[in-house]
Design brief:
Distance between the termini: 13 Å
Largest sheet: none
Order of helices and strands: HHHHHHHHH
Helix content: over 70%
Radius of gyration: 17 Å
Strand content: under 5%
Structural class: mainly alpha
Number of strands: 0
Number of helices: 9
Shape: globular
Length: 188
């Protein structure tokens, strides 16, 4: 995807979020249509169960609707803000005792996988993923590992620190600095 297409998409989502903050339900429906597949993917990667990803996504969209006025375009792109809402909601669900107990009984074979129902969305996601991977390759191995464990696998900074046997403060610094570099790279 060309940078101008990404910028156009970002501006469109920014406008839709602004309209949502004013209570525009048609803007919310359009926002949902434009972002649901991508945001479902975020929740699904963390939760690994379709039903729980759907639950997390529904709750996340309720928060997006309720708090659309808190989105600040100066602090990042609208999709990044929405991904963080979905990620946080997914992590909240993951931390619930019910989830952990049920997770022990679940196996991947029992759950349906995401389907390729929308080829255009999949192509767009693939192009964005390629750009993201190129930006991640510019990071140190430690930064990249910490970011992927945190944002792709859903680990908290404390869990990442325990997993890689580093201090939590170091992990948080690597994540923060790495995300700054990735954002600068993606904005180019």
């Amino acid at each position: 995807m060309k940078p101008t297409a990404i910028q156009d998409s970002s501006e469109r989502l920014d406008l839709l979020l602004s309209r949502c903050s004013l209570g525009d339900q048609s803007a919310f429906a359009e926002l949902y249509e434009a972002t649901a597949a991508k945001l479902f993917g975020v929740a699904f990667r963390i939760l690994k169960r379709e039903a729980w990803a759907e639950e997390a996504l529904q709750e996340a969209y309720m928060k997006i609707w309720r708090y659309a006025d808190s989105y600040n375009p100066g602090r990042g792109r609208p999709m990044t803000w929405m991904i963080n809402v979905v990620r946080n909601q997914s992590l909240d669900l993951l931390r619930k005792a019910d989830y952990r107990a049920a997770e022990e009984e679940w196996s991947p074979e029992k759950d349906a996988r995401m389907s390729g129902d929308n080829p255009a969305a999949m192509a767009e996601t693939s192009q964005e993923l390629q750009r993201l991977m190129a930006c991640l390759s510019g990071l140190s191995e430690e930064q990249r590992d910490c970011i992927l464990l945190s944002y792709h696998q859903g680990y908290t900074p404390s869990e990442v620190a325990a997993r890689i046997e580093r201090p939590v403060g170091t992990v948080k610094t690597w994540i923060r600095r790495g995300l700054i570099k990735v954002r600068e790279c993606l904005d180019q």
